Amino acid sequence: TKELSRERSKTAMRELARKTYVLGRVPFGYSVRNRNIFVDLDESAVVQMIFRLYLEENLGLRKITRHLNESGITTRRGNNWAVSSVRSVLQNEVYTGTYHRAGTVVPSSHAAIISAEQFRSANEKMTGRRREIETQRPPRQTRHDYLFSGLVRCSECGSKMIGAARKDHP
Fold first, then answer.
1. Chain-centroid distance, C-alpha 27
2. Which residues, listed in sequence order, are joined to residue 5 by a DSSP beta bridge?
3. pLDDT at 164 over 80
4. N or C: which end of the chain has fewer CB within 10 A?
5. Is this prediction's pTM over 0.90?
6. CA-based angle 16:20:24, to the nearest 5?
7. Taken in order 122, 127, 131, 137, is the CA torsion positive or negative?
C-alpha cells in the first residue's frame, strides 16, 4: 500500500507540473499567483544583471557575487549573495521559460527572463572556464583518507571537521 500511495503522489505531482502549477520553492526572479509562475520585475532585473555581468562584462562568479553584495542587492530573504547562488541562477533553465518539476518538462510555460541563447552561452562559458581552471591547477598530490573526517564536529559552530595534509615551510 505504501508503494501504491507513493506512485499516486508522483502521478498527481506530474499532473500538476503539466498544468504548470508551482510545486516547491519559486526561483528567484519569479513570484506565484493562483499557483502559476509570474515574473517579479525587481528580482528579474537582478537575474538579467547576473547574466549580463557574466556574458558581456566577463566577470566570474566571485566578482559577480562581490558586485551584488557591495551594491546592496540581497537575496529574496534579505541575505548576501553566495557564489553558489549566482551559479544556480546561471544554471537554472527556468529563466528561459521552461518549467521542470516531478520529472516533467514544460517548455514555454511562463514568461522568460533571459533568452535560450543567453542561457546556452552562459553554460558553455561556465563549462569552458571550469576546464581551463582544471588544466591550470597543479596535478593533485597524494590523496589522504582521514578516519574521523565528517565524524568530528567543531564545538564552536558545529561544522564537520575534515583532514588536510600540509607541508611546513621554514
1. 10
2. none
3. no
4. C
5. no
6. 70
7. positive
